[in-house]
Design brief:
The protein is 5% helix and 54% strand. With 844 residues, it is mostly beta strands. Belongs to the fimbrial export usher family.
Length: 844
Amino acid sequence: MILRTGVLSGLMSLGAEVWAGDEIQFNTDILDLSDRTNIDLSQFSRSGFILPGVYPLQVQVNSQWLPEQRIAFYPPDDDPKGSQACLSTELVEQLGLKPEMQARLGWWKSGECLHINSLAGMEVSGDLATSSLHISVPQAYLEYNARNWDPPSRWDNGVPGVLMDYNLTAKSSGRKGSARQTDLSGNGTFGANAGPWRLRADWQGRIEDESYSRARRLEWSRFYAYRALPAIQARLTLGENYLYSNVFDSFRFTGVALNSDDNQLPPNLRGYAPEVVGVAKTNARVIISQQGRVLYEALVAAGPFRIRDLNDAVTGTLEVRVEEQDGSVTTFQVESANIPYLTRPGTVRYKLASGRPSSLHNGGQGDVFGAGEFSWGVSNGWSLYGGGLSDNNYTALSVGVGRDLLALGAISFDVTRASAKLQGTSLSGDSFQLSYSKNFDQYDSQVTFAGYRFSQKNYMSMSEYLNARHYGGPVGGSKSLYTATVNKQFRDMGLTAYLSYSNQSYWDRPSSERWNLSLARYFSVGSIRNMSLSLNAFRNQEKNQHSGISSNHTGMYLSVSLPMGRSGTLTSSVNSSSQGQNNYSTNYSDRLDQRNSYQLSASNTSVSGYLNHAGDQADVSISAALQENSYNSLTLSARGGGTLTPYGGAGHRTAGTGGTRLMIDTGGVPGVPIRGYGSPTRSNAFGKAVVSDVGSFTRTAASVDLESLPADVEATESMTQLTLTEGAIGYRTLEVIAGLKAMAVLSLPDGSVPPFGAMVKNEKQQGTGIVNDAGSVYLSGIQPGGRMIVSWGGAERCTFVMPEDLPVDGLASTLSLSCQGVAADKTMPASASLGRIVDSEKKS
């Protein structure tokens, strides 16, 4: 539709001159028409002029698009014949102007519209051909701006709705000489949105064979509600929660929390999230939990895995469980900590919480407590931070300082003093923590986090105090903790190195240690390019608290990969472990298409296969393995959800649960391919599609995949973008026309034809064609028995109905259609539809 309008406008411009008032005058003699007296070019006659009225337009501020809004055009006070866009107070708020700029604003039409000239350099122009309003504002007038980020004035809380997300894994395995075992595990979220509020209920569970002693039931792990408070860049949470602290350790409680939310800051000012690195011997299930609550669960292919999409609010000790297909289980812990506590100069970050500590399975564990912490950016290089945590029998106070060392990195140091009354005994002690972070750009190196914490013997953290109170004695008093993560690139060698290390020692039980090393190098041999060699080595060392027996798990994974075809990869590997198990394998992985990928593996002991399908309703993975004379297994994993709003609902795939999402409405047209995050999805039978895992407080775009559109579908509006608050259900419509296409000739009741340039629309007011010479028109979006409307001279003039039986190939023949509802004397001659026609002979 836009293409046809553009071509027509281009032809008109060849015979047009601009007169006073920016009015375009057309020389119709250049048009090869049989009837030059029957022309309607009124919509093209004035450059940039828009008749007074209200129009639905998409607003573009500089290079950023805002949601569609209804924009009024009024004649200015000093130009009764003109027309100017009215920027309402609501729209001006979305511009994101600095406070000092807002104070300069002037208004007209009784304070309803912005005086454009009150901001020097600001320009506004409307374009009905693209249904858009373009606003240009000098960047110096706007709030902090970053790529893909909008100021709070443009954030969208979404629409009301309910959601149900799930992550399920079913496994059936058989071992020689024993009964077959089947289990089902999963976690998910039920939720509801109302305005800025998000209500969530998390569930998790594991169901196993009755013959298996560890059978469990499904359980609710968390009930809570939260909302964003953009005015103070904070997040308010009510219900069951975890203490997310940069100073104290994490524990579960029921109550209220108010935290500064880094996610509401521009991306380059936000914090970081922990990552989990390991090696799976087979296609394995990885479960990451904290204090019994499952945070992440996924089926991974054999080989190294690196999980980097955990929530950046996660702190404290994470428990990682790797369940292999042969039934073996590997567990280890990851210490999650924050980078040095620094705050931008002149700003204060804070976290407040109050409630009662609670356990996932045992309910309340302690007395009502209060906690608070802060960080103050004193100057460009210094930050002060600290906080307090207290209940009737426990008190902890902390104070620290952070320093930006510029070229030398960043460092912070804090001291925490804790006092506890436990079973009539008073205990007190100190804990010292040192943190360091540095990017060594000149060496292509990065120390993501390096830290050391030492605690005196009588020092107890809140979680240790709660455990001691519940179990009747001191439990796992921490002595020291070392953590470090280092990345290094050797560009001349094409080598990348990653090393992580942690060492945890205790006063009353043996220490534990874990390190992981990853090396990867890309190289070429002759005509074979992008070959890779990778090495992953790890060691976990723990001692049993009661027996004192040391448990060491050491392993190495070495692989060589060779690219095959367009997207395939052939990999040979050796996996060795301290248990004396050496496994040699070869696997081939490839993508069948944009939605499907697979991996086939064969080793000295087994064969296996892995298939992943990114479906419209769910992300499904299937894994099968067979080991000679030992075991066989089949595992199925599905991650997806459902979202329901007042505008409709849809099933969809999702990586996380309970997160932000965007519903796209294609006006009831099914099968429309939509691009967003990850693989494309398609609108369902009701014309709804959901793009999940959308970033919060970050500009998100979704578009129609024009290359994959069905032949009978045409998109008149192919893209939308917006910025959603955390957990929101966004809603946007994309104009899509569905139906057949055909050539037709329109005639009026008196035998004449509609004028050249007349517009044809369907009942949804979507443009379907422009009338050409002698009433001919190329129509799209044709529905059998559907009604269409023909307009010219700014008014609807007649309607026609498509026949019930349409030709299979509408372009092979021409339809003759009668347009009813207008008489011959009501057609508009060219002299009435044009302001002034330039006489080509007179001008020459």
